From TrEMBL:
This is LacI family transcriptional regulator. Residues 1-22 form the signal peptide. It comes from the Bacteria. GO terms for molecular function: carbohydrate binding.
Amino acid sequence: MIKKITGLAATAALLIALTGCAGGDSGSSGEGDDNIVVGFSQVGAESGWRTANTTDIKSAFEDAGIELKFSDAQQKQENQIKAIRSFIQQQVDVIAFSPVVESGWDTVLKEAKDAGIPVVLTDRAVDSEDESLYVSFLGSDFILEGERAGDWVNTEFADTDQVNIVELQGTTGAAPANDRAEGFRNVVTDPKFEIIATQTGDFTRAGGKQVMEAFLKSNPDIDLVYAHNDDMGLGAIEAIEAAGLVPGQDIKIVTVDAVKDGMQALADGKINFIVECSPLLGAQLVEIVEKVVAGEDVESRIVTEETTFTQEQAIEALPDRQY
Ligand code: AHR
């Protein structure tokens, strides 16, 4: 952990540095003192995306020689709040976390700020009005992702009169669920499009399957599934096949993420289009942490670069896909 030195201690340290006289062994800062310690609270392990994100973050910190205290919140906000409080108590140098939901963070973020520990938001945003509660937000533009899904829908169904859409939403209250819903509605505005059902599948494959089964029972005429992530789309495929229909043909599917399993389904024609959301945030997070600890300025918002995939593009990208 980096020691924060002030007042007399700082003056003594300066004298030691200038004279080179530390007095026996005690003056040696020792390797431990120079080590950066970061506390990271992860959402959980709900999806292929999340697993890839965790792996990437852990290996980036290992490569950088930075100690990472990792905590899995199992999709529960109260677990993340507990983890953040524990990181504050342990006086880590930086706290990073991916907030499971957008709201309800002000109190604990204020506690971190009062303890002098900078916080970096990773992947997901919070809705705090006080932006001084965190130093940077690194992650995707989820509204843009929803708009990209919607743009594809507009083109794909340009010659269709009436399009019945069902939506598998992400975790209720999570930034990607809120924003992907908003972005999609920003561009899918023609009255011929009707979102006939929308429900959360909690970003999980099991959730997507279960909700899609219910949608199929109560809606005989579904043209399109808009799933907020690949995992829910993959669950929907299982439900559609179990109902004797052909995913990608009888019912078209657009998803977000572009993890390997999703890309394979796209290559196989079971998903029709995927909007990428990159989980590879580790290297950029390390960079932010190093700058913050060095007292350098960091950008308050760093947007991840992403693309979209058609079937042909998925076939081409699959062999080199890292996750
Ligand atoms: O916050 C990113 C989202 O969370 C990913 O799209 C989803 O797969 C994950 O669970």
